[in-house]
Amino acid sequence: MAKNIEIEIQVQLENIRPLKSFLNKKAKFLRQSRQIDYYYTPVHRNFLAKYPAVEWLRLRKTDKGCSINYKYWHVDEEDRSHYSDEYESSIDDIDQLKLILQALNFKQIAIVDKQRQDYKYRSYIISICQVKKLGEFVEIEFEGKTTKRPVEITKDMIKFLKIVGVGKITRNYNGYPFILLFPKKVKYEEF
Questions:
Q1: Which terminus of the chain, N or C, has fewer Cβ atoms within 10 Å?
Q2: What share of residues in the chain are helix, strand, coil (percent, to 5)?
Q3: Could you give the domains of the chain?
Q4: Rounded Cα–Cα distance for residues 191 and 119 (Å)
Q5: Is residue 153 within 8 Å of residue 170, measured between CB atoms?
Q6: What one-character-per-residue DSSP string does 77-116 give?
Q7: How many CA atoms lie within 13 A of 45 on its CB side?
């Protein structure tokens, strides 16, 4: 995919054990990390004023360093997203950037704290995430080149999970900060 395009699903599984077993046998373990994500919105253009929220500005702190990230999710007529424009860069001093955002009238709206294990399997990065206050999730991100449309790629991700045998798959289209802020408004789809 293009450098600034991200194709990803975020799901909860009825039975994660078959996926963990599959990854331990067939995938390459990449890393284990803790990520603390700080989400912001500009006061003059509130990202949460629109449903579903399609824009996120995030600062991330990990044991390997810090980054800033902006995503714009493209949604279909049913408010489902299959890909986003994504721009990301490393930063040296997250505390100074927080102060800059505050001075520019950006408001912190959510903090997402998660432990994750990342695996590489074919053209997927598969992450098992334990998200504080939300539970266990699986993220699958496509990395590679293809002529398929994003919606076809996300359908392939669901098929992959079904083949592995994880039972019911519950996909959310809103992301962790939205789930924390508006748990009753989250759009889910079951497979």
A1: C
A2: 25, 50, 25
A3: 5-184 (2.40.320.10)
A4: 23
A5: no
A6: TTS-EEEEEEEEEEES-HHHHHHHHHHTTEEEEEEEEEEE
A7: 5
Residue reference for tokens 């800059």: 100
pTM for the model: 0.95
DSSP designation for 174? S
Of the candidates 119, 120, 121, the one whose C-alpha atom is nearest the C-alpha of residue 129 is 119
- pLDDT tens digits, 171-190: 999 999 999 999 999 989 99
Beta strands 81-91 and 5-6 are antiparallel
- Residues in the chain with pLDDT < 70? 1-2
The residues, any chain, with a CB within 8 Å of residue 186's CB and separated by 6 or more, are 172, 174, 178, 179
pLDDT at position 83 is 95
Do 60 and 69 meet the contact criterion of CB atoms below 8 Å apart? yes
pLDDT of res. 187: 87
The pLDDT value recorded for residue 2 is 57
Structure tokens at 123: 């053209």
Residues forming beta bridges with residue 37, ordered by sequence position: 60, 112
Q: Report yes or no: 124 and 158 within 8 Å, Cβ to Cβ.
A: no
Q: Cβ of 77: how many Cβ atoms within 10 Å?
A: 5
pLDDT at position 139 is 98
